[in-house]
Amino acid sequence: MKFSSALVGTFAVLAIAAPVPHQKRAGVLATKTYDEISISGGVAGNAEQEALDVFSALDLTNMAAVDPADIDFLGSVNDIGNDAEVGAFNPAISAASGAEKTALQNGKIKNKVLKLQATVLELQIKAAQGVDTAEKLAAETKKLNNNIALDVKAAGQASTKLAFDATTT
What we know:
single chain; 169 residues; mainly alpha; 6 helices; 62% helix
């Protein structure tokens, strides 16, 4: 059986023009312990960039395509950040004084920047995927900006990292 070149050409054009199934992007953020993602140590003043670096594997140029597993990861960063604040930072700050207390407060602020940055990214991604997050995003962004300002104000001061037993999802 012979095929005409026109028939073969038609099939070739159709094959090339056929739609390609949408490739779902796999999650890029892996399970981590709190201690692995904590930015609380070192010095104050650069918490915003340090927090963004934790999430640098995300493609923030195409938030509509972020995998649900990565959205869950961001939510869990906020959860364990809250747990570390209540379970580690608050008691340590209450028991400290002087320079030690200031360094712990700086660490707590950096922890807040991390957890709030995760929340803001989570809400921005959800918005890009069609969820109405405007009101909550505005409130969380305001908190994030306040804590970034506190961190910048304390630039160069010691910041204490506390170990905390928690893991992201």
